[in-house]
Amino acid sequence: MAKERVLITGGAGFLGSHLCDRFLREGYQVIAMDNLITGDLRNIEHLFKEADFEFYHHDVSSFVHVPGNLKYILHFASPASPIDYLKIPIQTLKVGSLGTHNLLGLARVKKARILVASTSEVYGDPMVHPQTESYYGNVNPIGPRGVYDEAKRFQEAITMAYHTYHKVETRIVRIFNTYGPRMRLNDGRVLPAFIGQALRGEDLTVFGDGSQTRSFCYVDDLVDGIFRLLMSDYHLPVNIGNPDEITIADFAEEIVKLTRTTQKVIYKPLPQDDPKQRKPDITKARSILGWEPKVSRSEGLKITYEYFKSLPTEVLYQRDHKNFDRYIR
Ligand code: NAD
Ligand code: UDP
Q1: Which atom of ligand 1 lies nearest, measured to the CA of 178?
Q2: Cα(first)–Cα(last) distance of the chain, in Å?
Q3: Are 170 and 209 members of one domain?
Q4: Which intervals hold domain NAD(P)-binding (predicted)?
């Protein structure tokens, strides 16, 4: 019998590439679709020899064509780090809105089930802690993060509309800060920022007074939660993340210990609208999916540090993403 086919948009990115690995291991044919705006073919180069893997270089904000059957679509294409979406705001808005529309249309004609990657950013700078799925959020639509947050909120709205009006089988995952190998070292997110600084012998830059919190999930745990959600019959949003909350100042100290850097922790101004606290309530994921994270921060950080150490020196000193220029208009 022919294998079932899965389309993974953003397949050359951090999370998308791990999803490609997982679906190939599960025995699916995988199509990764990506325009490489923040992704990197090195994340999937080990897959090009696989008979069940294909790569389509395409911008999903333009009409998406895939010949043949599709069983599942996972829409992960979108810039994801604040630095990225500040540099490419229009592309961020387009991929969350037009891109999602195109993929929902594709899901409809293929009769495929689609899972969209939403984010804890739909809660904005949250007034409810920890964040439950029933919280509507506190988002500034015209602030610097608005281009990402509102695109993701629109993404959830149009996904629910396709579920309700076109009876498309939809799933929505709200992803909380996730880390692991294949994150881009220069994407500005806090973990690659701190580890990159330690590896280059620079001081670690904590923004604000470092009292803001995040809760970091290791990528394998996240991928497992996403897989379970896709296979479930639950169509409302589900938080997937690790509830182990830490202040950014304490996190910097953990990275100092991990990397044994002799550099200092220094303080820089807090960016506008930076959420003060973030921690997922994962009651739903536990009860509906039987899922909870298994990898502790100390284990996950060790693996991730080894990955960053193994990168070529030029990557360590690359300040920007090589593909941005080509897309900024
Ligand atoms: P990433 O930047 O590594 O991956 C995103 C991928 O999407 C890249 O390969 C990029 O080239 C591709 N892409 C962007 N716009 C595209 C377009 N128009 N057409 C085709 N491809 C396009 O980021 P990531 O961390 O892997 O994030 C993946 C998804 O998960 C995003 O939707 C993001 O919003 C969501 N998410 C991630 C996190 C996290 O902690 N990593 C948290 C919440 C949500
Ligand atoms: N941050 C920091 N130093 C850095 C990069 C980020 O202190 O060099 C802080 C940032 O202000 C935020 C937290 O770390 O409070 C997480 O930032 P990130 O960009 O990783 O993701 P966010 O959760 O804000 O989207």
Answers
A1: 40
A2: 47
A3: no
A4: 7-303
